[in-house]
Amino acid sequence: MSKTPLIQIRNLHANAGETPILRGLTLELFPGEVHAIMGPNGSGKSTLSNVLVGRPGYEVTGGEVLFRGKNLLEMDAETRAREGIFLAFQYPVEIPGVANNYFLRTAVNAIRSHRGQPRLDAIDFLTLLREKMKLVEMPEEMMARAINEGFSGGEKKRNEILQMLLLDPSFCILDETDSGLDIDALRIVSNGVNQMRSPDRAMLVITHYQRLLDYIVPDRVHVLSKGRIARSGGKELALELEEKGYGWIEDEAGGAS
Amino acid sequence: MSTAIDSLVRLRERFAKDGPGWLVAKRDEALAAFLEAGLPTRRLEAWKSTNLAPLAALEFARIAPTGVATIDAKLAASLPAGVRVRSLAEVLRTEPDRLAGRLGRLADPKKSALVALQTACLEDGVVVELDAGVCLAEPIRIRFHSSPDVYDRPSAAFPRLLVVAGEGSEATIFEDFDSAGAARRAAPGFTNHVAELLLASGARIELVQVQAEPAPRVHFTSVHAEVERGAHFASHVVTLGSGLLRSELDVRLLAAGAETVMNGFFLGQDAAHVDHFTTVDHAAAHCTSAQEYRGVLADRSKGVFRGRVIVRPGAQKTDARQSNPNLLLSDEAAIDTRPQLEIYADDVRASHGSTIGQLDADALFFLRARGIGESEARVLLTRAFAQTIVDAIRDPELRGEIGARVERALAGLESVSADRSGAGGAAPAPEKGGRR
Ligand SMILES: Nc1ncnc2c1ncn2[C@@H]1O[C@H](COP(=O)(O)OP(=O)(O)OP(=O)(O)O)[C@@H](O)[C@H]1O
Ligand SMILES: [Mg+2]
After folding, report:
1. Which amino acid residue places its CA nearest to atom 26 of ligand 1?
2. Which ligand has an atom closest to residue A44 CA?
């Protein structure tokens, strides 16, 4: 395993709109690692995800983020994606009028061009698409439909995983991808994620449920509370949280600040 | 009188006395009506938002002679029995009385000065006749080109379309207005097109029009359809030009079960002025109209949409829907959108809505977060906005072709790709029934 971290988040402070949400968050992931982030509603998990992918409406007020040693916060959203950052959104948007397959090919080719790889023509892309769709058990007819339009909650999440598989990112953030999934979909999504685990890729898995971590076994578990990491541990921390809730950590964190 | 009128009145003398007596009389009556009314001015309610002064100032050097329309030769050669697609001039020559009582039945010179002018200058066009029960799978393609490259002095063209659809017949007609000389500097000119469609019971006719004549040509189209019992008329108007355009659509639903779909996509670019004026007349009970015009206004362009919906007394169980969403891509672009409901029956379902907005900020961000560059993402979303209109075209080949033209036109816009909302990406601000 490489000795340099893939991503380093140092003392990050950020506002959502005008409101300070992240208050000195520090986190490092090395290639090959999978970390889980848990934490109460409103603690800033989605804010962290959105800040990392450069969503408008969030303002970084302090700290830094290095991705492969480069200043991530200076890059616009598309550059971050092309450099290998991917967020599976907690609430995927519906885009009427843009066909899924057309969108996916455009995205794949934008990223391939950035990496100096040749663009895929319609046929090569279809081959790749079919292979990845099998992994997430999505029927082919969904590809001709508009992005997420009329998709069920679970189908939207599977579509996010499909995008992740196609875009081949090196740092993946999954924001509650397990929420609202039935047992089968949870297995499908977890398989997709496990498929992506590799020595040169890192993943940040945001979840409220220990159950997901039975499928995707994390190297580290962090608890986010009030905009910073209040506690970190191994996968057994998730079990402890399941049992005791967040109260005891928030008390400790509150006492420390 | 204006320069334009003087020159056109003089030029029409070349052919005004040609053809059967009924037509000569029609031309003369129309000329009288036109001279009495003059070119429409903004003092008229229906022309409040559109100024024809640039047209009035033109001194025309010619009226485009016969042969303004090309009918797809391949199709013409392989038409099934019961379908006739011919030039108007040919029909007038070979069967002088065939069109008497049909040509000009719907397009009334007394109601519109520009229709009167068209009729006064009427020389040629296309006649489509479908016998009862015939179905034509392939679209009938008609290309009207203004070929301004040959003459750099203003020319006018007055092409006409007449469609007579027998009971239960089916066809798609594609009228393509573009400029053959688009690559060169286009000369100023005037296209004045009138189309009349007579749909007998149970007929299904789809009329697809692309209006892509570049500035400085002035374009006027006036479509009139009469829809009998159980017949279905679909109109798809795609406007991509950069000049002054007025497109009128007038549909009359005459008997129970008559239906119409009125779809439009208009793109305003540069200093274009695109004015769409629709009227649907529910003259009988149990008829349906569904109308959706979508506008994208870029640069300094101005859009106008007026949608009149008339529900006559006794036209119960009418279902009339109208919507006009618009995207403004530049601060200097504007849209004036006004529905006009005139409902005289009480058991009616009628809805209308217009919105004015910008691209959806969340959708734009989502595409960028997947690696798609901002300008490409904007083109994609703008295209998506147009897509529902293109998707409604029934013939797949035509749908693909027009979709590609819309996409090319959008990709060519600078203001589509330019970010004007700032990094935060202002949320779209829909405005119910608003104007700007
Ligand atoms: N644009 C905004 N303006 C003001 N406050 C915001 C904005 N966006 C988010 N917030 C607030 O920031 C806080 C953190 O939100 P965030 O979505 O990051 O929480 P979360 O940890 O992901 O919660 P959940 O578990 O419910 O998904 C919340 O209190 C939320 O209301
Ligand atoms: Mg969240």
Report:
1. A41
2. 1
Question: Which residue, B247, B210, B205, is CA-closest to B83?
Answer: B205
Does any CB of chain A come closer than 8 Å to the CB of residue B425? yes
Domain ranges of chain B: 3-255, 359-425
Q: Which CATH class is domain A7-254?
A: alpha beta
| Per-residue pLDDT tens digits for B199-240 | 999 999 999 999 988 888 899 999 999 999 999 999 999 999
What's the ipTM? 0.95
| Of the partner residues A54, A55, A107, the one whose CB lies closest to the CB of residue B370 | A107
SS (H, E, C) B162-187: EEEECCCCEEEEEEEEECCCCCCCCC
Q: What is the pLDDT of residues A107-132, one digit of tens each?
A: 999 999 999 999 999 999 999 999 99
CA pair distance B156, B36, nearest whole angstrom: 21
- Decide if B181 contacts B212 (C-beta within 8 A): no
Which of B182, B167, B305 lies closest to B237 in space, CA to CA?
A: B305
Asked if B369 lies within 8 A of A81 by C-beta distance, the reply is: yes
User: Which pTM value belongs to this model?
Assistant: 0.83
A81 interfaces chain B, CB cutoff of 8 Å: yes
A206 C-alpha vs ligand 2 centroid, how far in Å? 8
Q: In angstroms, rounded to a whole number, what is the distance separating the alpha carbons of residues A176 and A178?
A: 5
The string of pLDDT tens digits covering residues B144-200 is 776 554 557 888 999 999 999 999 999 999 999 876 544 455 678 899 999 999 999
Does B396 touch chain A if contact means CB atoms closer than 8 Å? no
pLDDT at res. A150: 92
